[in-house]
Amino acid sequence: MEKKQAAESNDEIDLGRLFGLLMDHKWLIVAITGFFTLLGLLNAMLTTPVYQADSLIEIEARRNSGNPVQDIGGLFGGGQPQSTSEIQILQSRYVLGQAANQANLPLTVTPNKLPIIGDFIIRHNIKRPDFAQGWSSVWAGESVNLTRFVIPGEWIGNAFTLKSTGSDSYELLRNDKTILTGRVGELAQSRDGNVEVRVMDLNASKGAEFTVVKHSDLSVINSLRSRFTVTEEGRSGTGILNLTLTSTNPQKAEDSLREITQVYLTQNIERQSAEAEKSLEFLRQQAPEVRQKLAEAENKLNNYRVNQDSVDLTQETQSVLSRLVDIDSQLNQLKFDEADLSRRFTKNHPAYQALLEKEQQLRNDKKQLQKRVDNLPETQQEVLRLQRDVNVTQGIYVQLLNKMQEMNIAKAGAIGNVRIIDKAIVQPSPIKPRKTLIVLLAFIIGLVVSIVTVLIRGMMNKGIESPDQLEDMGMPVYASIPLSTEQSRLVKRVRTRQKRGGTSVDIGILAARDPADMSVEAVRGLRTSLHFAMLEAPNARIMITGPSPGIGKSFVTANLAAVCAQAQQKVLVIDGDMRKGHLHHAFQGPSDGGLSDLLSQKMTVEQVVRSGGIEGLDYISRGMAPPNPAELLMSERFTRLLEWADQHYDLVIIDTPPVLAVTDASIVGKQVGTTMLIARFGQNPPKEIEQAWRRLEQNGIEVRGCILNAVERTASMRYGGGYDNYQYSYR
After folding, report:
1. pLDDT digit string (tens) for 636-678?
2. How many helices and strands (H and E) does the chain possess?
3. Which candidate, 17, 186, 2, 224, places its Cα nearest to that of 105?
4. Pair 458, 16: CB distance under 8 Å
């Protein structure tokens, strides 16, 4: 039969086969998924939890404290809360630095814990067992209270080890060198006096160690800032700020956030008081000058009255005077306001422009009144002028005194514009790790990884999975031998020098141990097929070969010989693999004294032929491994052996090495009438089988057909339509 070309591979995805692959490897999927889930569970249990403290504060609009700037600025929206700027102040180094120092964050004392499980032990209150006495690791219930730790500046950021040496004694080490020793409650100093330590409480077993580090202010601030967040609640401009701080220590998170809010509140009050102090300082500078001007104005008025014999003002002049005094008072007040505004705003600011407009209007009114004054008699004009100076200056002085009193009251009663709504408190449940989510993600990742692994393995496995694939290549399939579970009991690992870890060999014949096994039944079907195939063969010799090792050639050879012997045939089995043949294990005999010894004329035929344990079945082992097995097979002695076997046996079956590995099979195939090629299910790809078939044909050997060995009833083949579901169902 002329061999057909191999069928082209189908590029379409066989969803049924993929589903079957997953079903075939369901326990692998379960194992990988379970492994990842277990890792996720361990991660969730062993990861140190992170707690969050939160606080809520309100930034109110600034109250009118009597500050002239605020009086005018409030008319233009200057009292609205500045949330953005306050957030920046909260996150400033000034606030965080003071809070860190008050919470004693620069000094960290960390217990030396067991790797991986140390946090778990402390969190779950596992006390130190007896066998762990003397260990440097710290267990639950062990702590140290370090109240003073002074070191040179160049050692800031370096790690020190505080080691318990007894119930009330300790030593401080740096780079495994003792710096000082001390007792609980006492101040301990190093010899040079550069290091001072005071431990007020030590509750740790002897040998327990704690790592002590004094951090720089900047590193503490950066660490605190990375864990501290400020967000504005609701829409922008509400002035409600939510403060959160995370830490692995819940008490430290709460204390640190409380200190931040207190420092921020204090600086806000101080800022309000400072504004009042600046205004008060300005008024104090003006008061002496105004008082001096008032005294001068009064003296001038009194002197003029004495000189003019007490000139009195008419009612009309009194009205003009009152109006002029009122305008001058307002102008003087605007001067104070302008002086204060000039320190805060430019002249283009709306508040500044409003003040200038009001000042210009008052000056215009003053000009109108001045025209009326010019029409009065000269003595009335002079008295009016002097009286006006006295009244205006007196009003200014009284106003200054009132403002100074108001500023003193504002300074003493400054309360700021910040109100703490919710005090800092830590939430009872940690925000990290989210155990349920971690375990769920680990389960999903494990499931995906396992499925992808199975699918990739299935796609990369190009081995033959059905007789149809061989038939499509034009290779007749004489038998499909299912994988036998009983046969696995007849297989063991044998160490070899050629293959590290050994190789699997048969230590018995399945046809003799369990004749009813389905694999043996398939071999009987092969025997029947070969009976008809050999009717036209020139001799009763059969060669069993394959493209690669480990595909079950010896299993098929031994069991085929056994079922033929059970059918009253006299069978001789020859192990033609003189390199690594292990057919003798199946007959439970030694390898020595076999084919190589016969062909090298060390032994006779009668000496190498042994009984196979079944009536009518004999075998010849491989013998000692020769240096030239191919040359021995090409010798005349091998031909004479086969001729002798034809005379004494009904059937001769020869097990040969792989076709693609060595040339032994091609040499033996020249002298046999029937050649069978074995392919293992899922192991030998079609191209490899095709190459072996072609190699034999190139050497003039006609291959009768193929035997598909170790066929598994897989879900991938069942759902993918690889072979009929009923082929193993009949018993």
Report:
1. 999 999 999 999 999 999 999 999 888 889 999 999 999 999 9
2. 24, 22
3. 224
4. no
